Each structure stands twice: as C-alpha cells, then as structure tokens.
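Subject: design request, 419 residues
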C-alpha cells in the first residue's frame, strides 16, 4: 500500500495537476486539517482530521499493518519536505511506502511575487530556537531571509527584534499574506508601522538587506555625544557586524583618558567608529585613522562625511610601517594589528609622547599573550611601564516572541598601558 502526501495551496483542488487530482479522487482515506479537507467536501472517502500528527501517524501505521484496502492521501500545505510534515512522516513511516507530490511552497511564491531569485536566500521557521538563528543571520547581514511566522513569532515580533538589535545593516521588510489565494497581499512595511497591526494568519516575512547607497541620512542632532548606536555607521558589505561595538567603544574611550587638543592614533580603524567618537567629543584634537584595507579606508571617509567630522585624517597603509610618518601621539588605540602586534607596540612606544596611553582591544588569546610578552620584556628595560587588563563579556537583551533573552557580544580583552 502507498501513502500519498499531497501538497496543496490556498487555491485548493484547482491548484493541483490532473494527475494529482486523480490520486486524491481514488483515496479511501483522506488525512488533513479542516481547511485542507474542506477543499474536498464532496469526497466520499473516510476522513481523518490532522490535529495531533502523532495520533494520525499511529492510525496510518495501523492501516498499513492491516493491509487497509484502497489508498491513503495526506493533505499538507505547500511542499511537504520544506518545513512541513514530510520530515516526520519519513521518520515514522516506511519511506518505500511514501510518495510525495509537492505544491509550490509559500517561500517560492513570495520570491516570485517580489521578482527575486531565491537560491541564495536563508529560510527560517519561527519558533524559539529559530529566533536565535534569525538574530545570528541579521547580525551577519545576510542579503535575503524568509521567515515562516506563527502567532507568537509574528511580523510585529520580528520587527521588534530588528529594532532591538540596532543592526549596522538596514532591511526592507516585506509581508506576504495568503499567497496563492484570491485575497493575496504582498506589501512592504516600515518597522514602526507594523506595531499594533493585524495580519492574515497565513503569512511570511521576507527581509532584504539594503545597499549602503539607500541608507537614510543621519539626524545628527538626535545622536548622543557618547556611545553612538552601531546602526548609524556604514559597515563592510560582506561583514556588517565587524566593528568595535558601542558598549566596548565606551569602555575604550574611558581607558584612553582623553584630553582636548591631543593627537590620537587609531590603528586598525576598520569603519572609523572609534575615531569618529573621539572626533565628535574633542573637535580640537587630531585623530589619525589608520587602516590597511582599501574598503575600510573608503568606509572611514564615508562615515566621516556622514557624521560631519573634519578632524579625522584617514590613512591608508600598513602598520607599523606607516606609523613612522605620523605626528607623535598622546593617545593610541589599537583595534586591529594584522598579526603584527609586537612590532606595532614597539613603534608606538618609540613615538608616543610623555604621559601617553596605549589601549588595545583583542579578541584572541594569541594576541593577548603576545601583548603581555611584549610588556614583560619592556618592563625589564623600562620599569616605569604599568599595565591593566579588563575582560569584557557583555550581553544585550533581545525580544524573542513574547519573551526576552540575552544575546552575548563577542568577548573582548582591553589592555591599557601607560608610561
């Protein structure tokens, strides 16, 4: 005996091919939800309402064991093997007795309505663990995400999550309702407009990352003077989350013990976030943002224009070689070293003005070991060096449906050295 698992859309029986319609017509047992069975209200087969799938599988297994006469057809939504009942049916019933007849999935319909290729999209089915997956994908800045929602993890909950994450990327928010039905709706929404709205129960969300060119201008008057939210900085297109994050930046600025009118080196400046924070706090200081990657240098310059700071000098070059050409600094921040941390520290110690401070932010044990080894060697020759180490492990609260959990940032070690 064969069990046919038939995918069906919101257009009901009319959306099935003639061959699949014939399979359904010959069924002696129809299994499905009330909605799916309702598409075949005149069918004479015995019906089994699919409420508890475990119970339905037990019933089907018994029918198979007793050589149940006729055919069994299980009606499910879309493609049974795409976030559907198919996986459980394969696990619980003999695979050789199963035949799948997929319909268009809602995700397939959604991307076709948006006229976008979808082979490179990321698919997430909403439940507690998948919201953690969604958070990770958003923080990575993937280009296309399709989220299959439910009552708890609704479009509004997804919008709330995106706002809470303060992402360096911006996403278009598309809501697709009743795909394939006569009352289908596909609309783009702003995150704020979603709050308090109600939608059709059958919906999914498509998130499309916007290019930097579409990022809205900044309202500088609304920004804090200290601790600029991460989402205001333009970031790397392929690594949008790679920057010194807000909470860590605030700690770094405190450790630098900044004063007006100083010269500051920002070595491995990345997107320029630390440099711009300093430049806004101390407009009479001169900040040298040193970055070896051309894309990074371009981002630094774009962000400087974006924040309208004029006292950051963007330097494209490799440290430590480029450091010999710069004005001696009062303060140095090293956020990236490219594996040259010991050599960079040697030049920094040579060029730094009396009373200077060096602050390093590291994410690897190897870099920390190299810095401490350099410090021990330096102290043997110059005892007037002192060092302080701070391990930073922070978590931000993020909404997960109707609950809240903590999302941890990458641990960072901040080393402060003074002479």
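Subject: RE: design request

Done. Sequence follows.
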């Amino acid at each position: 005996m064969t069990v046919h698992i038939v995918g069906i859309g919101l257009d009901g029986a009319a959306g099935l091919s003639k061959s699949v319609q014939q399979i359904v017509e010959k069924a002696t047992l129809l299994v499905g939800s009330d909605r799916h069975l309702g598409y075949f209200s005149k069918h004479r087969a015995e019906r089994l309402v699919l409420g508890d799938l475990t119970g339905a599988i037990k019933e089907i297994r018994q029918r198979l064991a007793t050589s149940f006469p006729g055919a069994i057809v299980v009606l499910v939504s879309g493609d049974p093997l795409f976030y559907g009942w198919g996986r459980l049916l394969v696990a619980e019933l003999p695979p050789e007795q199963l035949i799948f007849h997929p319909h268009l999935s809602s995700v397939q319909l959604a991307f076709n309505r948006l006229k976008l290729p979808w082979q490179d999209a990321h698919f997430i089915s909403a439940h507690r663990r998948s919201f953690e997956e969604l958070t990770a994908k958003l923080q990575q800045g993937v280009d296309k995400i399709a989220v299959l929602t439910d009552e708890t993890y609704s479009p509004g909950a997804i919008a709330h999550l995106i706002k809470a994450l303060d992402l360096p990327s911006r996403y278009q928010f598309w809501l697709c309702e009743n795909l394939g039905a006569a009352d289908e709706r596909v609309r783009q929404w702003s995150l704020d407009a979603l709050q308090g709205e109600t939608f059709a129960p059958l919906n999914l969300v498509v998130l499309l990352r916007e290019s930097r060119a579409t990022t809205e201008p900044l309202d500088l008057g609304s920004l804090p003077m200290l601790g600029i939210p991460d989402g205001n900085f333009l970031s790397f297109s392929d690594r949008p989350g790679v920057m010194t994050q807000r909470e860590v930046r605030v700690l770094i600025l405190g450790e630098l013990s900044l004063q007006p009118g100083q010269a500051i080196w920002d070595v491995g400046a990345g997107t320029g976030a630390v440099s711009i924070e300093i430049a806004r706090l101390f407009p009479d200081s001169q900040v040298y943002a040193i970055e070896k990657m051309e894309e990074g240098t371009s981002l630094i310059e774009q962000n400087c224009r974006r924040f309208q700071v004029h006292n950051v000098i963007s330097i494209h070059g490799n440290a430590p070689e480029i450091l010999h050409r710069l004005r001696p600094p009062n303060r140095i921040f090293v956020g990236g070293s490219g594996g040259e941390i010991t050599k960079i520290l040697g030049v920094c110690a040579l060029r730094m003005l009396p009373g200077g401070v060096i602050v390093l932010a590291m994410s690897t044990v190897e870099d920390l070991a190299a810095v401490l080894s350099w410090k021990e060697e330096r102290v043997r020759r110059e005892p007037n060096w002192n060092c302080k180490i701070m391990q930073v492990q922070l978590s931000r609260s993020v909404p997960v449906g109707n609950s809240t959990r903590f999302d941890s940032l990458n641990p960072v070690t901040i080393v402060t050295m003074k002479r």
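The CA atoms of residues 153 and 223 lie 31 Å apart.
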